[in-house]
Design goal:
single chain, about 375 residues, mainly alpha
């Protein structure tokens, strides 16, 4: 059945076909999470590492296998260093766990006193509500420890396969390109090349912009928390920078973690207010100045689709799905914008043309002038 015949069918038949296709694709994606999730991550990593691999291969005259391996090893070194810093900070937190637990209990007791005084709810009623949750957080049992060990082993296995797939994507990139060309008809090859080039360009620029944004946010938050005199300031800054990759939800998660750690590590509970203020100001500056300046309009997706993408990604693949939601949505929009029958979906996913923040615009103009002078 060709496209013209399909478009001529009744609406309810077309709707049934679309719904069946969506359910089938969704089921297969959920079923193949263990295989598809590292594949998608490795695809993004290979796009990011492609210029590095080309440099090793064409400038340094190294074999493609060696160039691909060196590129993956560079990425592995960077991620290993980041994991080491975070793990060392968490180890310090675990050393102080009894003190942390006692401080959290004391802070909760003071908070229940404030609620009893101002809201007239007795401590007993409050205790019934929060006791179970507090015990789960502060007194992990054997099953929770076992689940944590299994989660860590699963993460390690996930990373191993991701790096292996990244190496093979870089090594067989010409073979993959030939496959994509042979799948589609001859008259569609130009469109396929355009989509692939746009996906590589936009995803690479977007990931680099996110890494720069993550580094700036982590540095600023760590510095502000250090000036405030908070313990584990570096850990909280790294968590904020990492979770900031997830739109909207990430900054709220980082705020909750920072507030809990501050309550458990500082006897002065008013510092939590400072933490909330610092996180709020950082988010406002990041959203209105840093994000338009560093990431720019590489991925122009409206806020509604962004939030839906994050929620659907979490429902399908959990935390990895939340991190992958924006790049995958951006790839889908590139495809939708270039396929005639799918253009309406690209329109609804896009953002309205709006005037950029004035400060970000001035900074962008200044940045372009510096680049032109340097050139």
């Amino acid at each position: 059945m060709d496209l013209k015949t399909f478009t001529g069918l009744p609406f309810y038949i077309k709707l049934a076909c679309v719904l069946f296709s969506l359910f089938a694709i969704g089921y297969l994606v959920i079923l193949g999470k263990e295989i598809l999730s590292p594949l998608v991550f490795s695809c993004l990593f290979s796009i990011l590492l492609l210029p590095v691999a080309k440099f090793f291969e064409f400038k340094l005259r190294l074999p493609r296998s060696v160039a691909s391996m060196l590129s993956v090893l560079l990425l592995l070194t960077f991620i290993s260093g980041l994991i080491y810093v975070i793990a060392s900070q968490i180890a310090e937190l675990l050393k102080d766990w009894p003190e942390f637990q006692a401080q959290i209990t004391h802070s909760l007791w003071e908070f229940r006193g404030w609620v009893q005084e101002h809201l007239h709810i007795s401590r007993g009623k409050q205790l019934q509500v929060v006791n179970t949750a507090t015990n789960k957080v502060l007194s992990p049992d054997t099953a929770a420890v076992g689940a944590t060990v299994l989660s860590l082993s699963a993460i390690l296995l996930f990373l191993v396969f991701t790096f292996i797939y990244s190496f093979f994507f870089l090594l067989y990139r010409r073979l993959i390109m030939s496959f994509l060309e042979s799948v589609f008809l001859e008259e569609n090859k130009a469109t396929v090349h355009e989509i692939i080039d746009q996906v590589q360009y936009i995803i690479r620029k977007y990931i680099i912009g996110l890494l720069i944004e993550m580094a700036i946010v982590a540095t600023v938050v760590s510095g502000a928390f250090s000036v405030l005199g908070l313990r584990y300031a570096i850990l909280l800054g790294l968590i904020t920078g990492l979770f900031n990759i997830i739109p909207y939800i990430g900054i709220l998660t980082a705020l909750a973690i920072s507030a809990v750690v501050t309550l458990g590590s500082s006897p002065d509970s008013t510092k939590v207010i400072w933490v909330i203020g610092i996180m709020a100001v950082t988010h406002l500056v990041d959203s209105n100045v840093l994000l338009p300046l560093v990431v720019g309009s590489k991925v122009r997706i409206n806020a509604l689709i962004t939030v839906l993408g994050v929620v659907i990604g979490e429902m399908i693949w959990g935390i990895p799905g939340m991190f992958l939601s924006i790049p995958v949505t951006a790839v889908l929009k590139i495809i939708f914008d270039r396929v005639e029958s799918l253009k309406p979906w690209g329109i609804i996913m896009g953002d309205e043309e709006k005037k950029q923040n004035k400060l970000a615009t001035r900074l962008m103009i200044k940045k372009k002038k510096i680049i032109i002078k340097a050139g």
